[in-house]
Design brief:
The complex is a heterotrimer of chains A (327), B (308) and C (385). Chain A contains 14 helices and 2 strands; from the N terminus they run ααααααβααααβαααα. Chain A is an all-alpha fold and 327 residues long. Chain A has a two-stranded antiparallel ribbon with strand order 1-2. Chain B contains 11 helices and 2 strands, in the order ααααββααααααα. Classes of the chains: A mainly alpha (327), B mainly alpha (308), C alpha/beta (385).
Chain lengths: 327, 308, 385
Amino acid sequence: MSGAPQATAAATARPRSAFLVAGVIFAALALVPFIAEVAGGAYLTSLAVRAMILAIVAISLDLLMGHGGLVSFGHSAFVAIGAYCAGIMLTEGIYEIAVILPVAIGAAALFALASGAVCLRTSGVSFIMITLAFGQMVYFALGSLAQYGADDGLTLWSAPDALGTKWLASKTGVYVTVLIALIGAWALVHRITGSRFGRVLRAARQNPARVASMGYSVFRYRLTAYAIAAMIAAVAGVLWAVHASFVSPSLGSWQRSGDLIVMVVLGGMATRNGALIGALFFIVIEEVLSSITHDWRLIFGPLLILIALYARGGLVGLLDRIQGDRT
Amino acid sequence: MSTTLILIQVLNGLQLGVILFLIAAGLTLVFGVMGFINLAHGVQYMVGAYLAYWGYGVTGSFVLALLMALPLALVMGLILEFLIFRHLYDRDHLSQVLATFGVILFLNQLAKVVFGPASLSVPPPAFLDFSFTLVDGLLYPAYRIAVIVAGLLVAFVLWLVITRTRIGMLIRAGATNPDMVSALGVNVRLLFMVVFGFGAMLAGFAGVMAAPIFSVEPGMGDNLLIVAFVVIIIGGAGSIRGAFVAALLVGLVDTLGRTLVTDGLRLIMDASAANQIGPAIASMLIYVLMALVLFWRPEGLFAARAAR
Amino acid sequence: MNKLALTLASSLLGLASMATAEVKVGMIVTLSGPPAALGQQVVDGFQLAIDDLDGKLGGQAATVIVEDDELKPEVALSKANSLVESEQADFVVGTVFSNMLQAVFRPVTESETFLISPNAGPSTFAGRNCNPYFFVTSYQNNQNAEVMGAHAQAAGFKKVFMIAPNYQAGRDNMEGFRMHYEGEIVDEVYVPLGHQDYSAEIARIATSGADAVFAFTPGGMGVRFVRQFRDSGLADKVQFMSVFTTDETTLPAQKDAAEGFLAAGNWAPDTATDESTAFVAAFEAKYGYVPGGYAMQAYDAAMLINSAVEAVGGDLSDKDAVRAALKAAEFTSLRGDFAFNTNHYPIQDFYQLSVTEREDGAWVTSVGEKIFEGYEDSFAAECSM
């Protein structure tokens, strides 16, 4: 895939400015609750939480797409799995987050290993379509759960307990937790992609035969990446359930998976901050534009087209060019 | 489950398959020859339907609306190609996904702004506005038969063009090895433009044909797009023959599946559980079919070349 | 546009805004995609009421903010937060769809803002989870189907074929039909939401021996199903009964294909009260299309709010007083008799409706026989309010 050499260069070059950018973003996000006290209130913090949760999922997808070269059109299914694990357990009276999280992560990992074993036999467009197929299966399956709201979704009446405390029942508690989770996800993926695992994954994206001939099992590396990405997405799903107090099958729809792909590409694939910036940009622009007009897609659509045409390497690539090439 | 019902369902499945073929044909050509993932193919189908609606409003005749819609759909496709898509042929699939996604958002919204959000209808042409009696009390509209016939005709013409003409040979060559075709001195740019424009026209034609059966609304192409992709994956990218067989197969599996799955489940579980699980499984059937095909033949049934 | 600037300004002017008496209503409806037609009716109906009240609610200047939930739960949630927190809305009117209502329910009610639904009436909030801040001016979702079932029973249809989309509202409506219908249900088919081609299902109807079909196929689904049903010739042999399938949002596309089809509801454009006739005339004059139940219920919601604000003299700070005023429902509903049950869902009359052509050529529903008077929903008993 063209664009790969740039991506690898960006992944390894200029780490300091990438850290700086990430640091600035996280600091800004940390300041949001304080700004919200003055203006914006729960609307602003709620918007920020939603953007952060999506950023977590986008980061996990970038591990797969940008570094692994695996374009999953069914990634949002893992978010839905995580969210529904939380939703069902909360509805059935299991409130402790320390129990909910492992179950959600475990369920996502199981489904990832099972579906990944099938999907990873294919590549290219076939991989895209078969991940879509599995995503659709999750979507339809969740929509058939009549006792848990089916397509209408499930309203959650209680917040989970955090190790016995009511930390997650307060808006502040949720905000801090999500921000920490975002930083954690970013750091985790940063470590993974910088490690030997990440290098093998990227090499396999560019030339699987060569990597296999070196003795690595490409399949196993990819399956591991697939499962890791799924587990991170499931955590985001649990966080969504806690934040919105509501889960619905649409969390796992193909439209949502498509949005995620757009976010990652928009931001810049296989860059340190691409997925993060892409997700935040997508949400913020959507909100800003939709407050101007209900027909905001008339503006957003062409914006995406322009970015696709002229901003190679996505927004991060654009930022780099504005900063000037200092390598 | 009477044989009459099964026979009728087969007919219905074929008709759905034919419409799917009309949509998938353009898509598979563009993807097979140019390696271009055109997510906007679904909105090109929608554009055809809206052009039919508008044309009918202006002329009062379905046939005239069809004749007006086709060149306009072609022009629309060429404009998109010229403005946006031709800059993306060399780029990676994901930039193409991003750009075509933007096109979908824009055109769906434009349709809503221009024509309003409500579902609109287009009546079939007067000379086809009658029905055949299939069984006592059940009529099958002649228009649907006409759609099947039209689809088969298009399939035949496409087959002729692809296998018997020079341009068809270039298309087949381009689907097998575009670099070689270019190296042999063929104006690949022109070839791409022709293929793309033709694909857009096919999608538009499908939209016009579908308008009297389905309703015309913004976003009508989005779900069909996904199914069309399933069709070309099963059939094999770049293969018209594959698209034809796969479309009919998908149409039949979907239609018969819906009929049989819930009934089958009712044999093993009680009615309300069957009514709950049955439709969910029925919706998944075409994806299961695709997964099976990919397992057995990852390039699709009639691939033009080995898996990309 | 800048929400931040706006909220900053409004917070700084917070004290001042309490002095200038004003009522702010935020609306969350679906204005994207094909269901946008329903959202548009709600907005137009509400706005007409505001116009009829000279831009005031309860004598106070009224501001209406309209938000589009795009049929996406996260967007609905975001807009709800915006209306309640940034805009400090006094009332939130929404939503059109039940799953959107589920998404915004907790944020709005927990902020002690009154949530008034002009359409969605899921059973979830009619029973155990009824809420002091939640009112419905439409009906409980199952009720129209229950009425249709009662009519089917009374009219003597022996075998009914049921068809609905495979989501909660679909199942609720099928269940509702069964409540009063005692004949044989020959088949119950669930199709995917947004299903296009009903030839398979129509073939099943033809071979099932049913003498009537009960359908819940809203929006574009209804347009397609009705036209395909008519084209198949079954309309003469099998009576078509439905809810939310042949209404003023779909009839402009269905036209004569729906002639003589039956439906059930609480109102039709030819409901014979003075207020209703004036409403329909004014609506058509202003917006150029025929209002359906969605617009009527939104108009009633505005009148309800108007009566409540007036009753408390414009002072909305005493929530209990506002609630009592809302419960009293001291306004003239366009549909005739209207009162709230203990769960804040309406007690109203229901009729059998049929599709006819008006003298001016428009296709509309028309009121037929009254099936139930003062009909309550079946979940009120579980509500502890």
